Amino acid sequence: MPPDPAPTAARRAVSPLDPRIEAATGHDVDTLWAHRDRGILDQAHTDLVDRHRELAQAETGVTFYRTLLHRLSSGKFPVDAALLQRIDRTVDQMEEAAASRAAAMRRVLDALEPIEAAARSATLSRGEAQITAADQAAMLAIASGAKLYEHLLTGRLSVTTASGTRVPYAELQRLKSNGFVTLDTSHPVHAGQPVSLTDAGRAALAANRRTTHASLPTARPGAWPAAPAQRR
Q1: 3-class secondary structure, 201
Q2: 169 class by beta-carbon count within 10 Å (0-12 exposed, 13-18 middle, 19+ buried)
Q3: Residue 24 has what pLDDT?
Q4: What is the value of pTM for the model shown?
């Protein structure tokens, strides 16, 4: 009798925190999972991967009930008392699954934030903390007020600023991993979590402005002015 095939690894559900985890650790999540299974991670990264697996399972639960609700409301079933009861029950179950996912996300963040802090310290010690033009534009937009939203049905995350500018979620995660912005997680993400600049973010933005201003070319003495001086 041929040997049983090797079991395949459970497929990982994608979570909104994956880009942030990958930015902080320098590895994609699949690699981190594999390293965890081989026992080659330190305790901090092991805890992070374990919490992330819990989050992936919670994400799967939310997806299951969202799909079921879509199927029940697709028009394939007669609208009667039984269907309405199933819809109500599914909505309650999806709400519970979303609450479990939120708790799992908080545990991932608790495990991730010390790793991010260590990565920031290493970056600052090498003198590599710089912001790009895209960083500056995003930080200026956030400075006027911004909120992170999650769509209840699609689960998509988006950042909207007071000026109407949209900041890509990946950009937000990068700024947060660098310690330039912070999220007020006391608010539910579906209602909008306020995003604001940290002291480090304001300092980096101010330093970048000074550097940009200092790099502008100055006119040579006696050179013809680029624009006529305003008469008094």
Answers
A1: helix
A2: middle
A3: 82
A4: 0.51
